[in-house]
Specification:
It contains two helices and no strands. By secondary structure, it is mainly alpha-helical. Helix 1 (about 5-30) runs antiparallel to helix 2 (about 30-60).
C-alpha cells in the first residue's frame, strides 16, 4: 500500500472514531461523557509517556552520533575508511579528501556524461 493510501486510511479511521465518540458522548450524557473522557485522556497520556521512554532508550547513544560542531566528519565517506567489499557484480565507489570540480560515481553508464554546456565539436583539418 502506498504512503498516500496509508495516510488517507488513517485520516478516515480518525474521522470515524471521532464521529463515533461524539455520538457516544451525546447518547450517555455530558456528565458521564466528561468522566469517561478524563479516564481516556489519562490512559492516552500514559501511553505517550511510555512511547517517549521507549524512543529515548532505543535511540543510538550520543557517543555514536555527534554533531558537526563537535568535529564530526562532513560526509559519510570522509574518514570512514574502506567500505564493505562489493558482492558479485557489485561496485564500491569512494571519494575521500577534497574534490574540486565535478565527479561521477557509477556502475554502468551508457552514452556520454556532460557537466555544464557541451564543448563545441571541432572539425579535423585535412592534411
Amino acid at each position: 500500500m502506498s504512503r498516500r493510501a496509508l495516510t488517507w486510511s488513517g485520516v478516515a479511521v480518525a474521522l470515524v472514531a471521532l464521529a463515533a465518540l461524539g455520538w457516544y458522548f451525546i447518547a450517555v450524557g455530558l456528565e458521564r461523557a466528561d468522566k469517561l473522557a478524563s479516564v481516556l485522556g489519562a490512559f492516552a497520556g500514559l501511553l505517550g509517556l511510555g512511547l517517549a521512554v521507549y524512543g529515548v532508550v532505543s535511540s543510538p547513544s550520543e557517543s555514536a552520533v555527534s554533531s558537526p560542531s563537535e568535529g564530526a566528519v562532513s560526509s559519510p565517506s570522509e574518514g570512514a575508511g574502506p567500505g564493505p567489499e562489493p558482492g558479485p557484480g557489485g561496485v564500491h565507489n569512494e571519494i575521500s579528501g577534497t574534490v574540486h570540480g565535478d565527479s561521477v560515481q557509477a556502475r554502468d553508464i551508457e552514452g556520454g556524461i556532460t557537466f555544464g554546456a557541451p564543448k563545441p565539436h571541432r572539425a579535423r583539418d585535412a592534411d
